[in-house]
Amino acid sequence: MNLTWDLETLYPCFESEKFKGDQELLRQYITELNDWADVNLHDHEHAAAKMEDFLRRYNAFRSVYTCLYSYADLILNADSSTEAMSVLDDIVDTSSAATDAFVKFNKWLKGLDRLDTIIDTSPYLSEHRFYLSELLDQSKFLLSEEIESVIAKMQNTGSKAWQRFYMQCASNVLTNLDVEGESRSVSLSELRNMAYDRNPSLRKAAYNAEAEACKSIAEQSAACINGISGEAITVYGMRGYQSPLEKVLAASRMDAQTLQAMQSAIQENLPIFHKYYEKKAMLLGHTTTSLPFYDIFAPIGEGNVTVSYSEARDCIVSSFRTFSDDLADFAQKVFDNRWVDAEPRAGKGNYGMCIDIFPIQESRILTNFTGSYIDISVLAHEIGHAYHSSCLVNETMVNTDYPTPIAETASIFCESIVNNELLRIAPTGEAVSILERGISDAGYYIVDFYGRYLFENKMYERRQSGALSVEELNELMLACMTEVYGEGIDPATIHPYMWLNKMGYFLAGNEYLNFPYSFGLLFSKGLYAQYKKRGQAFVAQYHAFLSATSKNNIVDAAKIMGIDVHSSQFWKDALQLIEEEIEEFISRV
Predict the structure, then answer these.
(1) How confident is the model over 350-370, as pLDDT tens digits?
(2) Which of 107, 313, 390, 436 could form a disulfide with 300 if both were Cys (CB 3.0 to 4.6 A apart)?
(3) For the chain, what is the domain count?
(4) In a domain, 225, yes or no
(5) Residue 197 DSSP one-character state
């Protein structure tokens, strides 16, 4: 089987007539959109017709932008190309000019009376009711068109420039490490990947080398995180948000009550993970009950059986078939149409990723397939993202956006389907590896991300009073990591530069990329528990839920599945499922 993806349905290359034509079309759409806004948004006569016209124009702009951006992003992640980075920057810079029209429309919308009544007059507007209502809610946080336009332009040389500088520093830092008797110059990403290696000496050496590499770029990274967070505090404050967290909750279509219910349940149940880490310390032969942090991702079990890519495909399709033919047929299409780039190679990002390209009703998946059973789980996870998007292909572009907390739901759900099958068919040692890897991932998304959430809260609180030094950032990170890992991890082994190796802190405009992933994991666990109880009666309702995620807030979307996300008991029940997995793991080893 071919392990590389086919991008021809998108573009042949950057130099192709199709790509260059769409670049020109993007500029044309932006110019026409801005000209239209200048002419039409001075009064509210013929309001329904104007709303329809704007939405059609804006959807057309978003379609071309999505194709261009997705292609450049795919090339960049697959081959770390400087050309792709340059093209991507140019696309983002060009598209920022659409901010003027978007802000004008939002302001115009705010001045309308009886929005719902107007929407009722048009089937097209009715399809966009949620989007328009959401824009109206957000309009109170918008500044004038001139100021918003200036902010968008200045961010290119402000927070986004700091982001690029951080990524450049983190990508270019190299350190020497002895690997199998040979001294090698390795990158930060390579060092982090060694955390999963079966060689305990290499894991420890790589972890220490990572700390030293982080230290070497700590001053630059501190400048970046201060610049990005400082701009966020200033801009969101000007718009009227009480904090960056309030802005993220609004963007996530999530309320504070949901976040509080989930975080309280996590805090209360941290000891179940501490128990797992203590057991792992014993299995790895440590003399203390606390696990050194450099062994937190150490593999357990044999994990030495190799599977082929075609066997992985067959396993995923057959596992999905136990849930629904629709899901299985979709997975088969993903493989048949070469939507996946699974070939490990130099210059390629060593992570899983799915990019959805709604204008062509396709997705593309990046992963690195090495033949392990774990790689099957990763593939299933990314196909889950693509399947979620396939439930939205009949929507217009603005109706395809679903919140980040929901984004991990379908992916983890699909991963759970496959993992349950792998636990049944895999050899004993492999089954233990799969079970333990799932628990390890859950610990990362829940314990580690909760610690990083606490850090981000405290960092923003202190940032109000001025920039934080490297020492202050280190102190905060150590305190938060020690709090959440408790007795399960030896605190003396936690290196203080973990704020530096979490890229989410450096992504401008994407604050708090932590709790949404905790939500996704726990929510999907809760859904999977429902599926096990209800069987096939669950399937159609689940598809309806995924199809509704782009046009509902989280509370209302969850109600489709009969779930109250304000209930701490729901979150505790989901955590109990992980506790049962931990108990099963302990009993197996």
Answers:
(1) 778 999 999 999 999 999 898
(2) 436
(3) 2
(4) no
(5) -
**Helix and strand tally (H, E) in the chain?**
26, 5
Single-letter amino acid code for the residue at 392: L
**Edge-to-edge strands of the sheet including 353-357?**
340-341, 362-366, 353-357
Could you tell me how many residues make up the chain?
Answer: 589
Domain end, chosen from 156, 177, 209, is at 156
> What is the reported pTM?
0.88
Question: Is 525 among the domain residues?
Answer: no
User: What are the pLDDT digits (tens) for 268-322?
Assistant: 999 999 999 999 999 999 988 899 999 999 999 776 778 999 999 999 999 999 9
Q: Which of 87, 122, 156 lies at the terminal end of a domain, its last residue?
A: 156
Cα 494 to Cα 480: distance, rounded to the nearest angstrom: 11
| Domain harbouring 50, CATH code | 1.20.140.70
Measured on CA atoms in the order 160, 134, 574, 363, is the torsion positive or negative?
A: negative
Q: Which is it for the CA torsion 284, 287, 288, 292, positive or negative?
A: negative
Rounded CA-CA distance 125/143 in Å is 25
Counting other chains too, the contacts that 371-375 makes at CB distance below 8 Å and 24 or more residues apart are 371/306, 371/307, 371/308, 371/309, 372/303, 372/305, 372/306, 372/307, 373/303, 373/305, 373/307, 373/422, 373/426, 373/430, 373/433, 373/434, 374/303, 374/433, 374/434, 374/437, 375/307, 375/312
